[in-house]
């Protein structure tokens, strides 16, 4: 069993006080924004059941989000829309969203754990980039849940605006139904024009 608080415990022992985890949701879709979140958990108020958001059901994510918002010291998220993703590319958009989510925290961290992302352009704070961070750190797992739930909510709303693309179900990922709608109806303002499946319909 992985101790999800292992990295946080080690950092607390080194004297760090506000340890932030950051992660993003929405790198793979061909439509919609990328959303990054930053979370500083309270070491005296641990949250049970944290995990990589992709391994949890929608209901479980919603439940954990409420708990994160209630128990964490600070929670923030930042949205970068498709237009900017096309301008700066998805990797830079993810990096920027993480950096700005951290910047928007009501308490600034003295150490940051990222899900395999170099954010040195956006912060002077010490950070550690962890491979599969949302599987090994409670703070990153919490951020992955916040980012995923917030992005899913946005995509459900977009589904009401752009009907026929099944956004409320596929969340912008290139499913069969989504690609068929793209072929029939063309692109929407939230499609990422630099992404291969979308390019051919411009």
What would you say this structure looks like, in words?
The protein is an alpha/beta fold. The protein has a single domain, classed as Nucleotidyltransferase, domain 5 (2-Layer Sandwich), CATH 3.30.420.10. It is built from 9 helices and 5 strands, in the order αββαβααββααααα. It has a 5-stranded mixed sheet with strand order 3-2-1-4-5, sandwiched between helices. Strand 1 and strand 2 form a beta hairpin. Helix 2 packs across helix 6 and helix 3 packs across helix 4. The longest helix has 24 residues. The N and C termini lie far apart (48 Å). The mean pLDDT is 97.
Strand content: 5-15%
Number of domains: 1
The pLDDT mean sits at: 97
Strand order of the largest sheet: 3-2-1-4-5
Class inferred from helices and paired strands? alpha/beta
- Low-confidence segments: none
CATH topology value: Nucleotidyltransferase, domain 5
Shape: elongated
User: In sequence order, what are the helices and strands, one letter per element?
Assistant: HEEHEHHEEHHHHH
Q: Give the CATH class.
A: Alpha Beta
CATH evolutionary superfamily = Ribonuclease H-like superfamily/Ribonuclease H
- For the secondary structure, the number of strands is 5
Individual helix count? 9
What is the alpha-carbon Rg in Å?
17 Å
């Amino acid at each position: 069993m992985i101790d999800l608080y292992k990295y946080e415990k080690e950092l607390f022992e080194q004297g760090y006080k506000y340890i932030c985890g950051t992660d993003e949701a929405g790198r793979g879709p061909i439509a919609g924004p990328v959303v990054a979140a930053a979370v500083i958990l309270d070491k005296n108020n641990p949250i049970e059941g944290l995990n990589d958001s992709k391994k949890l059901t929608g209901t479980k994510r919603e439940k954990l989000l409420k708990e994160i918002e209630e128990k964490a010291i600070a929670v923030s998220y930042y949205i970068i829309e498709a237009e900017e993703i096309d301008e700066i590319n998805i990797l830079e958009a993810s990096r920027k969203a993480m950096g700005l989510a951290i910047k928007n925290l009501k308490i600034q961290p003295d150490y940051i754990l990222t899900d395999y992302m170099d954010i040195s352009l956006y912060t002077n704070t010490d950070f550690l980039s962890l491979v599969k961070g949302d599987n090994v750190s409670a703070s990153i797992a919490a951020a992955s849940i916040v980012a995923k739930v917030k992005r899913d909510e946005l995509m459900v709303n977009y589904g009401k605006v752009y009907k026929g693309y099944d956004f409320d179900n596929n969340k912008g990922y290139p499913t069969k139904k989504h690609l068929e709608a793209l072929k029939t109806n063309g692109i929407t303002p939230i499609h990422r024009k630099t992404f291969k499946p979308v390019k051919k319909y411009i």
